[in-house]
Amino acid sequence: MLRILAVDDHPIFRKGLVALIKDEFKDCEISEAEDGKEAIDLLSTTRYDFLILDIDMPKKSGMDVLDFLMENDIKTKTIILTMHNDELFFNEAFNRGASGFLLKEDSSMEIMDCLSKVRAGVPFVSKKLTSFLENRSKFNEEMSRIKDSIGSLTKSEMNTLKLVAQNKTSKEIAGLLFVTEKSVENYRSRICKKLEIS
């Protein structure tokens, strides 16, 4: 039996969503919540396979619910279903563990496709938001590259980088690290090369 919790503060939309899911997935049991607080109360006592969650709600937001899941290590697969075509919300949701992100304007077919994919362990994003996903992938790749580059810095280079970030001059850094100014310039040069910055 597939257990689903649908959370949305608009009862007509929520009831329509529940009817749509029940029609498609015969093996499911669906509970409803009208706000984030009620959702958290239900998630505290009952295990759900799926959580379909709006973002803007009274009492507690969808982001609050995602935080609750993370803090309590609850493995419910979560799909955000919102009217917000917003890259900040998109990234925040995935950073907080969401498995899917849909817009309320998406077709019923796309919503069902999302449920099937996420159920199989495949993240799903609305077709209208593929550019957000591409940007996120590029950002994650760049962050991974930067982390690897920073990890390659020696202790002296790392100390120099921290002081450069505090707007210290090479002369000031040399005094603080008890090295020559020429050594600091060498550290700076190697940092730029490793991090691929000018």
Q: Give helix and strand order, one letter per element, not per position.
A: EHEHEHEHEHEHHHH
What are the low-pLDDT stretches, counting only 5+ consecutive residues below 50?
A: none
The helix count comes to 9
- What proportion strand? 5-15%
Over all CA atoms, what is the radius of gyration? 24 Å
Helix % is 55-70%
Q: Describe the biggest sheet?
A: 6 strands, parallel
Spatial order of the strands forming the largest sheet: 2-1-3-4-5-6
| Count of strand segments | 6
Structural class: alpha/beta
Shape: elongated
The termini sit apart by: 58 Å
Task: Report mean pLDDT, rounded to a whole number.
Answer: 89
Briefly, what is this?
With 198 residues, the chain is an alpha/beta fold. It has helices at 11-24, 36-45, 62-71, 87-95, 108-119, 130-151, 155-165, 170-177, 181-195; strands at residues 2-7, 28-33, 50-53, 77-82, 100-103, 124-125.
Which features would summarize this protein structure in a list?
198 residues; six-stranded parallel sheet; alpha/beta; 6 strands; 56% helix; elongated
3D architecture notes:
- This protein is of the alpha/beta class.
- Helix content is 56%, strand content 14%.
- The chain is elongated, with a radius of gyration of 24 Å.
